[in-house]
Amino acid sequence: MQTRFNLKTELYEPSPDWSFSTWSDVFGRWWYEVRGPKGAWEGFGFWSEWEARQKARQAIILAH
Predict the structure, then answer these.
(1) What percent of the chain is helix, strand and coil (3-state, nearest 5)?
(2) DSSP conformation class of 3
(3) For FRET with 58, which of 5, 14, 23, 33 sits at 20 to 30 Å CA-CA?
(4) What is the DSSP letter of 1?
(5) Over its length of 64 residues, how does the chain's per-residue pLDDT go in tens digits?
(6) Percentage of residues in the chain with pLDDT exceeding 70?
(7) Cα separation of 15 and 30, whole Å?
(8) How far apart are CA 11 and CA 27, in angstroms?
């Protein structure tokens, strides 16, 4: 089981049926999880919260 540090969940404002979460793991890597009407998926390996948030937003844009 993964321990999630600094977990934050936000709605994607241009399309409120989508949301994303960001968190860091025990090694200091940042992850994101995107959830919406087309499913849910994760990305990981980012060095900052900002980078993970940007990639999550990009994933939502690509999923539209």
Answers:
(1) 25, 45, 35
(2) -
(3) 5
(4) -
(5) 578 899 999 999 999 899 999 999 999 999 999 999 999 999 999 999 999 999 999 999 999 8
(6) 98
(7) 24
(8) 26
Please give the C-alpha separations between residue 30 and each of 17, 26, 40, 55, in angstroms, as whole numbers: 23, 10, 17, 11
State the distance between the two ends of the chain, measured CA to CA, in whole angstroms.
31
Tokens standing for residue 51: 């980078």
Structure tokens at 23: 């968190």
Closest CA to 17 of 34, 33, 5, 42: 34
The full DSSP string for 33-47 is EEEETTEEEEEEEES
CA distance 58 to 55: 5
